[in-house]
Amino acid sequence: MYIKIFVNNPWQENTIVLYDASREAVVIDCGCFSEAEERQVREFLEREQLTPVALLDTHLHIDHILGNHFMKSAYGLEAQASRDDQFLIDHAVEYAAMLGLRGITPPPAVGKFLKEGEVIRFGNSELEVIAVPGHSPGGLCYYSREDRLLIAGDVLFAGSVGRADLPGGNAALLISGIREKLLTLPEEVRVIAGHGPSTTIGEEKRYNPFLH
């Protein structure tokens, strides 16, 4: 599996494209805020001759879904996410205003709700859905067992964990979910977080101060 990461919007959010030799792709957490950011993603997909077949969201905080309109209008893709984060879509405009982002268009509705244990298939690849609430009630991670790759959203970062002081957050739930569901994965698994650099499960088991 191949990986392309775009750093988008004022929150420096990681928009992730995964694809394989079939040239089918999934886009995860499309945070495109400007036309220039949208153009970068579109030109990459065209240059690599990729067909995006799914739009996945790890959670529905506004910085991770700013590009969902773009993905729907350009490729006809509706977001797939957890039902437990639906309230974040319903109140996206007011939550965005709390973060200083005013006048946004309400994001499109989620097209499909995902649950723990579901498998997303594209091309020759599979992603398993792992539910880890706590940063948001509907936090999801996507795991490629074959490629030893975890898309962690804002659950787990290099040297840190997601904040739990936003609406629906729960610190105890977040930490227990990370320990029980993520740190039990093989240590060599690469972790791509929703912001900042990548890490590995082994690195976080050994050195993450929030997990000791």
Low-confidence parts: none
Proportion of strand residues: 25-35%
Mean pLDDT: 96
Structure summary, number of beta strands: 14
| Spatial shape | globular
What string, H for helix and E for strand, traces the elements in order? EEEHEHHEHHEEEEEEEHEEH
Can you name the CATH architecture?
4-Layer Sandwich
Distance between the termini: 32 Å
As for the CATH topology, it is Metallo-beta-lactamase, Chain A
**Percent of residues in helices:** 25-40%
How many structural domains?
A: 1
Kindly report the spatial arrangement of strands forming the biggest sheet: 1-2-3-4-5-6
Q: How many strands, which pairing sense, and closed or not: the largest β-sheet? A: 6 strands, mixed
Number of helices: 7
Global Rg: 16 Å
CATH class: Alpha Beta
**Structural class, please?**
alpha/beta
CATH superfamily: Ribonuclease Z/Hydroxyacylglutathione hydrolase-like
Which tags fit this structure?
single chain; 212 residues; alpha/beta; Metallo-beta-lactamase, Chain A; six-stranded mixed sheet; 7 helices
Explain this structure:
- By secondary structure, the protein is an alpha/beta fold.
- It has one domain (2-211): Ribonuclease Z/Hydroxyacylglutathione hydrolase-like (Metallo-beta-lactamase, Chain A, 4-Layer Sandwich), CATH 3.60.15.10.
- The protein is built from 7 helices and 14 strands.
- The protein has helices at residues 35-47, 62-65, 68-75, 86-90, 92-98, 171-182, 201-207, and strands at 2-8, 13-19, 24-28, 51-56, 79-81, 112-113, 119-122, 125-131, 140-144, 149-153, 156-157, 160-161, 190-193, 199-200.
- Strands 1-2-3-4-5-6 form a 6-stranded mixed β-sheet, with helices on one face.
- It is globular and about 45 Å long.
- It starts with a strand and ends in a 5-residue tail after the last helix.
- The mean pLDDT is 96.
